[in-house]
Amino acid sequence: MRLRYNTRLYPSAGQRQALARAFGCARMVFNDGLRARQEAHAAGLPYISDGELAKRVITQAKKTPERAWLGEVSAAVLQQALADLNAAYRNFFASITGKRKGRKVAAPRYRSKRDNHQAIRFTKNARFCVTAGGKLRLPKIGDVPVRWSRALPSEPSSVTVVMDAAGRYFASFVVQVAERPLPAVDAETGVDLGLGHFAVLTGGRKIDAPRFLRRAEKKIKRLQRALSRKQKGSNNRAKARRAVARQHAKVADARREFHHRESTKIIRENQTVVVEDLAVAGLARTRLARSVHDAGWSAFVGMLEYKAALYGRAFHRIDRWFPSSKLCSACGALAGSMPLGVRSWTCPCGAVHDRDVNAAINILAAGRAERLNASHTRGRDGGCRPGGGQVRPPLAVARPSEAGSHRGAACTRGTD
Prior knowledge:
By secondary structure, the chain is α+β, with helices and mostly antiparallel strands. The protein has helices spanning 13-42, 50-60, 75-96, 212-228, 235-269, 280-283, 289-295, 297-310, 355-377, and strands at residues 2-9, 118-123, 129-130, 136-138, 142-144, 146-147, 158-163, 169-176, 188-193, 197-201, 206-208, 272-276, 314-318, 344-346, 352-354.
């Protein structure tokens, strides 16, 4: 499998100027290509092919006085910028035709020089390399010092140089990594993500929510007020903006480190991990948006998924509409309405449930049932075979008085 290894770069003043030129040239080529295709579409002309577009905005543009400075940077940077535009168009066309699954993808947009996040990419054809002294050699930029936290497991196929809003530089290497299966264990767990506790596991372990953004909110507000008082376009305003960006970067780094630590621990201790497919995008439009973004559930689940594949563990998602909190894990009875304020409840069968622990138990049980369904209906080769039956009980038919959705019923799904 392919993974990204990120390392910190420390370019000199001259190298920062060279990188700024490369960022600007890549942005200009991207915008020129986008403008050419938009103008052709508006004029009713055929779609400009990738090869013809490269000839117009790179090869021929370098010969004009207006774009002669494109020759000051590596040609690979310009070609990769155009490749990004072509990929964006392909994703857009696949989305509107229904070939691409998931959320709809918008058409490509112009890149702004005022964007504080800039990136360029070098492939093997650009002949970048890591020197014997541990520096990253980039064409027409030089040997950039790197702070290595770990060695690369294999030769990288590409590297992306990124400058974030805080003015920091990073190198993101794409490397091929072999699977490293861990010794098998008997434990399995379901993971219930929430806001009161970041995660609750089937065994009853509760991971506290660190709330990194909430803890840094007071300092961020003070820096934001200082930024608002600075005159637009002044150096002091630029310094204040970087101070705000650095504080946000600290919050993001702490959250990422927390996600890595907890996801690695869960994967090492369990052979199978089952999570709920949360509608994070929908929850981010509610009054809980700040807390949802602060938790970073999507990033955490993504780490669980790729680490399970890397270390030979099983990973499964269940449907987001599964009533994990309201379903009694002892008798299977489904409770009625259960607001978020209800943290424990008693089933008519006599079982007393902690809301989050009960949800984690049900999530694991649902994951087992769905995997068993798949094994009954498919052979080891993945092909369908007769004789498989449904393991989970069928859904009950709604009565006429029960049909329909209540207003706001789906707004808080997944926050328990």
